[in-house]
Automatic annotation (TrEMBL):
AAA+ ATPase domain location: 133-269
Family: Belongs to the AAA ATPase family.
Keyword annotations from UniProtKB, A to Z: ATP-binding, Coiled coil, Nucleotide-binding
SMART domains with a match to the protein in the record: AAA
Cross-referenced Gene3D superfamilies: 1.10.8.60, P-loop containing nucleotide triphosphate hydrolases
Name of the featured protein: Peroxisome biogenesis factor 1 (inferred by orthology to a human protein)
Gene Ontology MF term list: ATP binding; ATP hydrolysis activity
Top-rank taxon, per record: Eukaryota
A matching Pfam family: AAA
InterPro entries: AAA+_ATPase (IPR003593), AAA_ATPase_domain (IPR050168), ATPase_AAA_core (IPR003959), ATPase_AAA_CS (IPR003960), P-loop_NTPase (IPR027417)
Amino acid sequence: MYLYFTIITKTDQSDILMKWCGDDQSSIYDGWKKIAKNRDSFNLYDLKKLSQRIKIISHINGRENCIEEDIIKESLESLTQIDKIASNKISNIGNDVNWEDVIGMEEGKKILTEIIIWPSKYNEIYKNCPIRLGRSAILYGSSGVGKTYLVRALIKKSNLYTMIIKGPELLSKYIGSSEENVRKTFEKARQNKPCLLIFEEFDGIAPRRGHDSTGVTDRVVNQLLTEMDGVESLDGVYVIATTSRIDLIDPALLRPGRLDYKIECKYPTQDERVSFLKLYIPKMGMHFKSSINNEEIQNDLNSLGKRMVNWSFGEIKGALTNTYFMALRKVQDDKSNSTHIKINEGDTIEITKIDLEMGIKESIPKRLMSSSNEYKSYLGEGINLKTGSRTTLA
């Protein structure tokens, strides 16, 4: 049984798969070597399940005699997460967010490049470095500022084996189980190195010690401290945590050696808001009227950006979503009164600055609704709210 769950080397993985899928399937050997480049943690149990799936999918596609890389990839994707990594506490995902799609956060991208992307790309150079280099960071900031989006872009950019842990899922009502889940998580990360280990909602599992009557989170924090800066090395394992409440996290975890870098994700600046609008208006299926020249579009976007001071990227995206559906409803409900809105051959909707202004008005964040001055800046100077006067949104 121990051998059944022992991690197999890459070369042996290819040999075993070729044996179980058919001795004449030499294409499996080459195909698996490419796919397994960043997947070290496969045991006999995983490979047995994978070989069975390969046989099924190749039979369905009528390619039993020619099992190539695409068949292996499809088989891997169809396996459940528990079959791939033999643990229901860990997730392994891929992403399609490009590094260039992340607007702003230049300092954060610079740090992540230096501590994760470069060391994984130039492993031999960094391996011989005489000093200990930081290998972990925590991303913090208000909801919607782009922490998760930056992490998703990092996953694709680094091309590392990735494990994503949603903080609270590590906690268990049984004594000792939560700490065991932490140990198993880091053990699996070491087996998969180079590995990117991501903790979402980190404040949920690592709050300040001494405030939990049951002592569960205290023991989890102690286990995290042991794993992140203990006797056993974390070489090849890069840890990223995200949180909206860094003030709730135990200070011991925020010291160098545990989470080495603190990266603040702030609300976008005016230039970043305009860049975001430029990038995501076409991405979300919209385009400006062809009669509007680029200079007019730039002026309109600058004007709209100034109406969204202290909006997060998520809130701006919500405004664009509202704009899209409002424009779509006009097309569906009354085409005769919506001649300025058209759907072109690329399935994108034609919009104007007025449509975007309406989308913004429908999307004002509730946290910004306490100030009459902010109302005027978002809704326009035509609304005059005097101190003590009543108003309604009805």
